[in-house]
Amino acid sequence: MAAAVVEANGLKKQEKGAGGIDGPTNPMVTPLLTDLYQFTMAYAYWKAGKHSERAVIINLSPSRACVFLEVVAFNGAEIHVSSERFDLYFRRNPFGGEYTVFAGLEECIRLIANFKFTEDEIAFIQASLPSSCEIGFYNYLRGLDCSDVEIHAISEGFVVFPKIPLMRVEGPVAVVQLLETPLVNLINYASLVATNAARHRFVAGKSKLLLEFGLRRAQGPDGGIGASKYCYMGGFDATSNVAAGKLFGIPLRGTHSHAFVSSFMSPDEITEKSLKSADGPNVCEDFVGLVQAWLSKLKVMRSSIPNFCAVALALNDLGYKALGIRLDSGDLAYQSCEARKFFQAIEKEFGVPDFGRTSITASNDLNEETLDALNKQGHEVDAFGIGTHLVTCYAQPALGVVFKLVEINNQPRIKLSEDVSKVSIPCKKRCYRLYGKEGYPLVDIMTGESEPSPKVGERILCRHPFNESKRAYVVPQRVEELMKCYWPGRSGKDREELPPINLIRERCIKQLEQMRPDHMRRLNPTPYKVSVSAKLYDFIHFLWLNEAPVGELQ
Ligand SMILES: Nc1ncnc2c1ncn2[C@@H]1O[C@H](COP(=O)(O)OP(=O)(O)OP(=O)(O)O)[C@@H](O)[C@H]1O
Ligand SMILES: O=P(O)(O)OC[C@H]1O[C@H](OP(=O)(O)OP(=O)(O)O)[C@H](O)[C@@H]1O
Ligand SMILES: O=C(O)c1cccnc1
Ligand SMILES: [Mg+2]
């Protein structure tokens, strides 16, 4: 959005941030797009550093799930905090499915690359925090950027699963904490709606054209733009959203509305009656008359189909090809079959090549269920226009992405919970996808950072992270490391390129196609296995028991 706004206003184009990366698409994505408590904590971190000469351990949370920070030194207004590592992941696949499409990474990297407070923003933070907050904190914010932050992430468009880190964020605690909210925000809806699009594509089938029509129903302008971008990524073919077409190069498609048709009371309203033929200088002086002549031959069906066909046939006489019709009410299966029969009859009777294949688009409150019902009944729809259910993610409104501390100052941290699905997997980890003989991914496995990677042809034990009895040996035919360095900070590592949206879309389609079909089906899909190495399993449980010693009953 930034680019469009800037150009439309004729203002100077926004400068690129570090690494030559443009700013976030939405200009509302600034360092202020975070929760107040992140600033409250950032102040507390800063303040703690100021008051300690050397290592200080602060317990910031009264709950069992403590956050420990080690401030190793401070230098005037600047604090040096030992490196912190957070994993960003989700706990359950959306829409009752067993897979998720990872989306939103590029916007995260754009935020990181351009993260810098303006004076105006600092003044606002100052006005919002208690007046007792010291001025040095604002000087600290003034110098803050993400040059000390390192991000490893799974590539955008990948199929991903619960518990596996989508992103690992390492860096000084204050800035990483400020990033929590915007990073989760940028991933949550993007991945949810991309997954929703992929699920609609799965039901509709590969051969259908899928059009995203949701702008009017989306949650505000950003919801609309985001929906168009990530539905395309998730496998839609085009959008009706013109702004998204300009911003991201997504193909635009559209038909016309009922209002357009009903705005004409009679053919007499058409003042310009002539039409030039498609391939020459000939002009048909009374095109409306030509249409009416065709109509008189077709008056067999009480619907708008003969009207369309009469226009299409008259256009055909002049060398034009009408594209198709859109059905927007009634029984879409029945009507599409009737329309197809009509088109085929015309092709046969009047010898118009390919008329039988005239495109039929259907719309009106479509969702996975209605697409499935149409498939079961049999239909002749070529393209589906889908709005409300797609872009609002009607079936599930949020993905539930979380951002959890996994290590601080090289000390692993675990978040414990009565609910085992909420227990976090500690440590800086490596994540791999192991493929089987038939080419399908079999299992994702997390290992400790320094463990040797799984090897092709070598048996490895894959364990459920929390359920002792669930384990399997896997002899991978292919091993794919999942996380790559997308923001190296000062590590000197190579930065992974951010590919254009059409390549991410292709990657996503390929990823979805390579999944075993039983993971993808709508009803009772088989869960995909997410595991840890034997070593990491032992370590998780050692840490768990250490953090939660045996209680004593009295
Ligand atoms: N053959 C079909 N099988 C299952 N669902 C269908 C079929 N045809 C249409 N639908 C769905 O049924 C619903 C019909 O909705 P509704 O009754 O509001 O529309 P309508 O009366 O047909 O049209 P309008 O919006 O013009 O009033 C829509 O969600 C549509 O997608
Ligand atoms: O139904 P959706 O999946 O949201 O897709 C987009 C809808 O938007 C348009 O009509 P709109 O709903 O605005 O008017 P209507 O109530 O007359 O269908 C269009 O004709 C579709 O029906
Ligand atoms: O082009 C269309 O047919 C369209 C676009 C948006 C919403 N409804 C229909
Ligand atoms: Mg509607």
From TrEMBL:
<dbReference type="InterPro" id="IPR013785">
    <property type="entry name" value="Aldolase_TIM"/>
</dbReference>
<dbReference type="GO" id="GO:0004516">
    <property type="term" value="F:nicotinate phosphoribosyltransferase activity"/>
</dbReference>
<dbReference type="GO" id="GO:0016757">
    <property type="term" value="F:glycosyltransferase activity"/>
</dbReference>
<dbReference type="InterPro" id="IPR007229">
    <property type="entry name" value="Nic_PRibTrfase-Fam"/>
</dbReference>
<dbReference type="Pfam" id="PF17956">
    <property type="entry name" value="NAPRTase_C"/>
</dbReference>
<keyword id="KW-0662">Pyridine nucleotide biosynthesis</keyword>
<feature type="domain" description="Nicotinate phosphoribosyltransferase C-terminal">
    <location>
        <begin position="428"/>
        <end position="539"/>
    </location>
</feature>
<feature type="domain" description="Nicotinate phosphoribosyltransferase N-terminal">
    <location>
        <begin position="85"/>
        <end position="188"/>
    </location>
</feature>
<comment type="similarity">
    <text>Belongs to the NAPRTase family.</text>
</comment>
<dbReference type="GO" id="GO:0005829">
    <property type="term" value="C:cytosol"/>
</dbReference>
<dbReference type="Pfam" id="PF17767">
    <property type="entry name" value="NAPRTase_N"/>
</dbReference>
<feature type="domain" description="Nicotinate/nicotinamide phosphoribosyltransferase">
    <location>
        <begin position="212"/>
        <end position="422"/>
    </location>
</feature>
<comment type="pathway">
    <text>Cofactor biosynthesis; NAD(+) biosynthesis; nicotinate D-ribonucleotide from nicotinate: step 1/1.</text>
</comment>
<dbReference type="GO" id="GO:0034355">
    <property type="term" value="P:NAD+ biosynthetic process via the salvage pathway"/>
</dbReference>
<dbReference type="InterPro" id="IPR036068">
    <property type="entry name" value="Nicotinate_pribotase-like_C"/>
</dbReference>
<keyword id="KW-0808">Transferase</keyword>
<dbReference type="InterPro" id="IPR040727">
    <property type="entry name" value="NAPRTase_N"/>
</dbReference>
<keyword id="KW-0436">Ligase</keyword>
<dbReference type="InterPro" id="IPR041525">
    <property type="entry name" value="N/Namide_PRibTrfase"/>
</dbReference>
<dbReference type="Pfam" id="PF04095">
    <property type="entry name" value="NAPRTase"/>
</dbReference>
<comment type="function">
    <text>Catalyzes the first step in the biosynthesis of NAD from nicotinic acid, the ATP-dependent synthesis of beta-nicotinate D-ribonucleotide from nicotinate and 5-phospho-D-ribose 1-phosphate. Helps prevent cellular oxidative stress via its role in NAD biosynthesis.</text>
</comment>
<keyword id="KW-0328">Glycosyltransferase</keyword>
<protein>
    <recommendedName>
        <fullName>Nicotinate phosphoribosyltransferase</fullName>
        <ecNumber>6.3.4.21</ecNumber>
    </recommendedName>
</protein>
<keyword id="KW-0597">Phosphoprotein</keyword>
<dbReference type="InterPro" id="IPR041619">
    <property type="entry name" value="NAPRTase_C"/>
</dbReference>
<dbReference type="InterPro" id="IPR006405">
    <property type="entry name" value="Nic_PRibTrfase_pncB"/>
</dbReference>
